[in-house]
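Recap quiz, item 2
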Amino acid sequence: MIQPPTTEAQLLDRACSLAGFSLKELANEHHLICPLNLKKNKGWVGMLLETCLGASAGSKAEQDFQNLGIELKSIPINHAGKPLETTFVCVAPLTGVQGLTWENSHIRNKISRVLWIPVEGEKEIPLCERRVGMPMIWQPSEEEERQLKADWEELMEFIVLGKIHDITAKHGQYLQLRPKAANSKAKTEAYGKNGEPIKTLPRGFYLRTQFTGQILARHFSLPSSTT
DNA sequence: CATTGATCATGT
DNA sequence: ACATGATCAATG
């Protein structure tokens, strides 16, 4: 097993050293088998990168590298470097949210510093042949954090008021709330409109592709629009 | 059931 | 073509 990195520079060095390799090559180094596709293994790429970088797999820590205050996120991109999927951040709290502020929230801690690792994600490329890209360490700018906070406060107001069923994925400019569960029958505790306890589908916070696309475009000086 | 890791698959 | 709502696996 790879030991956890002790400095941010070491982590970034390691991540850079993965760039250009295919998923099959990286998997082989760790005696792992690359699946044919991700249909039954949706988190496989993320787990592989954790292994390669020495993150504590399966840990319940708040961040992947808590000693460094950094969260690891793989992000599937197309040939132009644009994200193909939204990015899951964390489960949304549906109870015990009195007095919860953005500053104290789990989500803010998670995205305060992120090591983004782009990975080719187009289905035309066989999974084993998809290559890992150059990593970047990011933290939200003041403007980005303002908007994330505004989205979070809009979404949390629904939750506090017991209006969870009124929330759709269309709410929020950068941050959206969507189901995060094994299936649509999963249930967790929440508030109803009269403050009574109800059971509802667990939800998670996701970053929209437009937001993560801007992060990548800015860092890599990619064109932010086309045609 | 909740948390970790996300992508799938269908509707618009 | 793309986003939304649904889903998959492994592990406490």
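The longest helix of chain A spans residues 142-160.
The mean pLDDT of chain A is 91.
End of item.
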